[in-house]
Batch of 2 targets.
Target 1
Amino acid sequence: MAKLKLGPIVDEKPVKVTVELPAILHRNLTAYAEVLGRDAGTPPIDAARLIVPMLERFIATDRGFAKARQSERRLKPEA
């Protein structure tokens, strides 16, 4: 079993977004989806479904972003 940063993909109500990706990124997303599905014992996930959890994970683990948001909150007066 591969140690991936993403866990199982939650099936939520989808929101349609149009994004252009470089071909290599799409191939890598597809390969990641295949590994994720294989590790979970499920069919491969559509690569597009990985974009949101990957972005969420990236934002959640970005220390610089967390510090910037924390500074922003301290500067804003509470309503």
Note: The mean pLDDT is 84.
Target 2
Amino acid sequence: MALSRRTAAFLAAAGLLVIAAIIITVVLVRGAQAPHQPAQGTVVVASAQSKASEAAAEAPDGSPEQAAAQYLSEQPTAVWLTPEGDPADQVGERIAQLAVEAREQSARIAVVVYGLPGRDCGGHSAGGLEADAYAEWTDAIGEALRVAADTSPIVLLEPDSLALAPECGDIAERVEQLSTAIQALSADSTWIYVDGGHSDWLPADRMAELIGQVDQASRAHGGRRIRGFVTNVSNFMVTDDEVAYAHDVAAHLDDLHAIIDTSRNGAGSNGEWCNPRGRLVGDPGGTIGDDVVDTNLWVKPPGESDGECNGGPPAGRWWPAGAVELTRDAVPE
């Protein structure tokens, strides 16, 4: 039976509405999906919870210490999660707050997970958790990051843990600990980078061997779970050297990528790693990228001490004089 013109018109209009609804749904779903992998142009959150922000609020008005802290508080920088500062029952709320800030800034969360058993091999940043407590802590972090999936979190997992392992004599233990942490932290929307040392530490083939062990161990839990490795964390090597090193390391691996810490490498390295004098902040995050190096980020927060050396306070504490020195070319006098 033939349809009336009115009925046909009604059905046509209804069909158009259905198609429009489908298109809108697709657009909304795509808009809700996390961005692609980190790349040049990536912006991470500049958190008001940072030690730089606290220092800027507490320093005398108009002082060089306030100017340096204020400048650093405005720079997108990774947030370090430690069990001492963010225990398992509180770290989820910390990440939720970071997610709110990230959405407000149209940025991504970037966190450093730093609580491995035997952390820093007894050095300036010694500490960390026992194995069971570490598993509980990383589970809590992973759960919170999955809730914040729309911010496409970047996780920089346990700096120095792999590059130090040969010296500490605990390679097998480190590989197991890191692969278990990767299982707890991994999600489709989370981009995990393990420790990659730096260009003046382990040879590229040795560093790649260690990274490859963690990659293979974590795959045992079902498919690749890491994006790659991060170099130069808390160090001062110039960017070009780190890019070359990242390419050398990646050449020994199966399609793994790199992030480079440029937070304090503006004047290069003088051979010291613990609060060396005369250093400068480096290029802002998200300014480089190629087929191996996803991008650069500020990973070590400038102004936070490396340890009780060269006049600095304990590791992780805010050091006003250090902040002033690092920003002397960036902050007008």
Note: Confidence is low (pLDDT under 50) at residues 5-34.
